[in-house]
Amino acid sequence: MTQVDIRIRNINHWYGDNHVVEDVSLDVREGELVALLGPSGCGKTTLLRLVAGLIPLKDGQIYFGEKDVSQWQPQKRNAVMVFQSYALFPHMSVEENISYGLKVRKINHHVRKELIQEIMEKVELTGYADRKIQELSGGQQQRVALARSLVVEPDVLLFDEPLSNLDEKLRVSMRQEIRKIQKSSQITSIYVTHDQEEAMSIADRIVIMNKGKIQQIGSPREVYEKPLNTFVANFMGESNYFVDNGVTRMCRPDAITLSTHGEYQGKVAWVEYLGSTQRLTLDWEDRQLIVDVFNRDLKDLSTNHGDRVSFDMDKRALVTLEDTTSDII
Questions:
Q1: What's residue 168's pLDDT?
Q2: pTM
Q3: Count of domains forming the chain
Q4: How far is 292 from 280, CA to CA, in rounded Å?
Q5: What is the pLDDT of residues 95-149, one digit of tens each?
Q6: Domain check: are 188 and 47 in the same one?
Q7: Do 134 and 141 touch, CB atoms closer than 8 A?
Q8: Residues 12, 13, 15: CA angle, nearest 5 degrees
């Protein structure tokens, strides 16, 4: 397996008159997992398929390391796609599914056996070699798909919403497994998802897209705490906005804390109990503020509908946004 970086340069793609990927450039470092995140139709899956070679590239360049793979066929790129549908062969056993790519590459039978045993241990499928696909749970099927991708030792690993068919609890455990396996293998990876939490939990960096364009690239912490514009701020979670003289600033709900002697006063307009936390909507001056607070921090404070509460705001958490839209409050 060769560690490579991925360099995407000025890619454009159209479906008819629809400009779905617009002048996109991106660097993915060796061994890094970068998540492409955005709403449906933002261009993230098209970009992934262009990198894989599943869609012909007509404008721009793609490099794997020093090699310009822009016009290479998918099989020559040594990039493997992990699909949301798993794309497993139901009539084959687990071992036969995993070995399929090795057979296509005409790998020696004894070498195949060794590679399959190693990868099944890595994805915790030891003892499942003879199981049929229909006998496996969704999480186990996803492990088989991952093992089949890793066993051929790809230079690049591409994930197309691989966990979208799983329930919430299984998604959480599987994204942890994917993260662990990808880090131990150090395969340069691009991961497409529309789930903000999934992207933040699994990625080294996140690329947020909208209408074919990149809106921001940064670590999970950067795109959440320091969004560049209102689209990123809204897409990554709840926000409080303040507009003054055409300048837009924002802060997250956890930048506001309730206290018995706070600097500001507001009235509780709405309460959502979320287990360990409560999400409050406060009427304050001429606007509403969203506040997230841990129940353990409330102590003797009352947060019933209609209660007046005191609060403080962490001014250091206020972020100035690039756009100056004045109608977002």
A1: 84
A2: 0.89
A3: 2
A4: 6
A5: 999 998 898 888 988 999 999 999 998 888 999 999 999 899 888 888 898 899 8
A6: yes
A7: no
A8: 155
Q: How many residues does the chain have?
A: 329
User: What's the token pair of residue 314?
Assistant: 């962490």
- CATH code for the domain of 96: 3.40.50.300
Give the Cα separation of 297 and 314 in Å (integer): 16
The confidence band for 1, taking pLDDT boundaries of 50, 70 and 90, is: low
Question: Residue 179 and residue 162: Cα distance in Å, rounded?
Answer: 13
Rg, the chain, Cα only? 24
C-beta of residue 166 within 8 angstroms of C-beta of residue 89: no
Residue type at position 70: S
| Distance set, CA 117 to CA 80, 112, 114 (Å) | 20, 9, 5
Question: Of the candidates 29, 23, 65, 11, which has an alpha carbon nearest to the alpha carbon of residue 203?
Answer: 29
Cβ(181)–Cβ(146) under 8 Å? yes
250 Cβ contact partners less than 8 Å away, ≥ 6 residues apart: 227, 230, 233, 239, 240, 241, 242, 318, 319, 321
pLDDT at 2: 65
Range of the domain at 286: 238-320
Distance, CA of 126 to CA of 119 (rounded, Å): 9
> In Å, what is the CA distance from 20 to each residue of 13, 199, 211?
6, 21, 7
Residue type, 232: V
Look over the chain and give the mean of its residue pLDDT values, rounded to a whole number.
Answer: 91
Q: Which of 142, 1, 147 is nearest to 78 (CA)?
A: 1
Task: Mark whether 136 and 107 lie in a shared domain.
Answer: yes
